[in-house]
Amino acid sequence: MSSATTDVRVLHAVLGSGPAGTALARELARRGHAVRLVDRTASGAAIDGVERFAADVSTTTGARQAVAGAAVVYHCVNVGYHLQVEVMPRIQAAVLGAVMEAGTRLVVLDTLYPYGETRGAVMTEETPWNATSRKGRMRAELDDRYLAAHRQGRAQVVLGRSADFVGPGVLNSTLGAAVFPGALTGGEVLGLGDLDLPHSYTYIRDVAAGLATLGERPEGDGRVWHLPTARAVSTREVYTMIEKRVGRPLNVVVLEEPRPFGPFDQNFMDEYAEMFYQHTEPQVMDSSAIERSFGLVPNPLADTLDTTLAWFRTWLTHR
Cellular component GO terms, alphabetically (predicted)? Predict the structure, then answer.
């Protein structure tokens, strides 16, 4: 009899290889799962324990190929801001249809957009969905469809919502490539709106840990969870913490209305205008439900900034 053993681990398929999908693939592999990381080209750097797979999940055929054989599918796909309202519903239709056909569980990475303007109220999973923006209404409609599919027994679905990303690999965030490179080099640093308002930022590795846990724990299905997020402080306090770490005052350029800056071009800022309320009222997300239910603890903000600055130092060296 052969001494070879068969890998009987269930497959976890991660759709989308942006910062969240990549961090999630690494986290799932670290937890010992078989992992497939899907994007249109499968051309990224090798990740230990992760199979890269090429498929266009905005198509029925591509979505079916991407989820084939998987026990859990994670939808972390995003598209350019100016394409979201048109393209994200098409991706949902393909992915949701594929997982329903395959009988696969679906974990969806979501945003705070469905809540809309809250006038500073702390956002919990019970906060009403009152979005008035195009992108917020679109996200709310998609989420309604996901949860309806679960209620109707057509799919097993769970949603994990995140605040603005921060951390290694995160470039296109309000706390990303418009902030850390300037902080490290003495260049300009972006500030949006009122810097003295509290604003939640979710560490990208906490996004990954939260989604991986939801993927492992089906008792959480059928609802929205807020992914683990450190206590909100003002953006000004975040910048003060960065100043202490880089040893110089930050050269902050405050935009009181959207206009091009750094990685954010005119096209992006035109689309971001309807979301600018996020910087003119407090944006405070409470993640205590997932912390209590699954024993997750968000990374301390101080540690997040240390890790992120270290990553950007390397990134700047190898650009």
Answer: cytoplasm
For 36, other C-beta atoms within 10 Å of its C-beta total: 23
**Token representation of residue 139:** 């996200």
What is the longest distance spanned by two Cα atoms in the chain?
72
User: Does residue 214 lie within any of the structural domains?
Assistant: yes
Residue at 168 is within a domain: no
Evaluate whether residue 99 is within a structural domain. yes
Per the listing, tokens 């003495």 go with 186
- Model confidence over 39-66: pLDDT tens digits? 999 998 999 999 999 999 999 999 999 9
User: What are the tens digits of pLDDT across the range 154-186?
Assistant: 999 999 999 999 999 999 999 999 999 999 999
35's enclosing H/E stretch is strand 34-39
- Contact assessment for residue 129 and residue 118, using Cβ atoms and an 8 Å cutoff: no
Task: Report helix angle 204-216 to 19-30, nearest 10.
Answer: 50
